[in-house]
Amino acid sequence: MEATSLPTIEPNATAGVDVSPYDAVLLLSFGGPERPEDVVPFLENVTKGRGIPPERLVEVGQHYFGFGGKSPINDQNRALLAALRAELDAAGIGVPLYWGNRNWEPYLTDVLAQMAADGITRAAVLTTSAYSSYSSCRQYRENLADAVAAVPGAPRLDRLRQYFNHPGFVEANADALVEALHGLPEPERARARLVFVTHSIPEQMAQASGDPAQPRAYERQHRSLVDELVARVAERTGNTHGADLVYCSRSGSPHVPWLEPDVNDHLEALQEGGTTAVVLAPIGFVSDHMEVVYDLDTEALATAGRLGLLATRAATAGVAPAFVAGLKDLLVERAAAERGEPVVRAAVGSEPAWPDLCPVGCCANARGDRPALCGQ
Question: Residue 131's closest CA among 315, 305, 282?
């Protein structure tokens, strides 16, 4: 692929808010197949080094083939880029936006080569993951280190902090919850249980998430957001709902312990306990990609239907105005900090704002240390 063919969104703004020393923003994401013939090669990229046989990848790929062989994630990233471009333009932030993926086109290394050719010297990196774990944090930092090592003249890259408790992300999820509740009829609306869903990870990865001195950050961060959202819903609706944190998308060997309960198992338990209505809130995901449209919209809602549970699903943050404005604020905050100016790192809930630079040993790689950018 020629570097010049890669996606870049140029500014359409006059000088306004200062984001120096940054001269670009890079959106870094997971990637996904765009057509049926992409599915198995994409899954080979995702599972590289794990020794998974091709026939197993074809089996896993049925989730994608059931949706025409295309993941929603790339289109959602395009929409996020367009929304962020409009937000930055409105603030007079005239830096170009770039987009690169871990596992599919546009590949991160190709995008860095384009950025170097365009004369970019220092970029702020925004990942489409709000939480701390190896797969959602450190692995992206390793990807950045690999790509910089492979591209002569690559720009300096500063990753923006994890934003699970940034007011913009929180507000977008609160809005989605209230809207979903309004879609339920009374009296079920008032007594609906809020089932907060995130991606399951191996127990070992969960233990290693965050600062080694304060492990299990992945769960703490989610629970902080759950508590904040329950309180905000109560303020807006007058109802304090029961709430649970559950998991989806478990994969790998059945002998390796992963975080539980699975969302489907939990729905069974809720129905047996007398619950009649639930709202599924996918707070672990930034947008409605495959883990949402398959694991929740297809499997979990089918489970609820079989059980006779009235169920609806809240939207992800996606391109909600509060979320997009929050991403701009994260950029402005980090730029000011890099210029040596005092900043207030906005955060809500029981956890503090995540640091700009990850601590030593943060979200350790279970297979051994590898170079990673954007840490101490």
Answer: 282
CATH code, 3-162+319-338: 3.40.50.1400
User: CATH assignment of 167-313, given 3.10.50.40, 2.60.410.10, 3.40.50.1400, 3.40.630.30?
Assistant: 3.40.50.1400
* Phi/psi at 81 (5° precision): -60, -45
> Can you list the alpha helix ranges (DSSP code H) found in 183-216?
188-191, 203-208
pLDDT in tens, the chain (376 residues): 333 357 788 877 666 899 999 999 999 999 999 999 999 999 999 988 777 788 888 888 888 999 999 999 999 999 999 999 999 999 999 999 999 999 999 999 999 999 999 999 999 999 999 999 999 999 999 999 999 999 999 999 999 999 999 999 999 999 999 999 999 998 899 999 999 999 999 999 999 999 999 999 999 999 999 999 999 999 999 999 999 999 999 987 788 999 999 999 999 999 999 999 999 999 999 999 999 999 999 999 999 999 999 999 999 999 999 999 999 999 999 999 999 999 999 999 999 999 999 999 999 999 999 999 999 9
pTM of the model: 0.95
Per-domain boundaries in the chain: 3-162+319-338, 167-313
* Alpha carbon distance 197, 98 (integer Å): 30
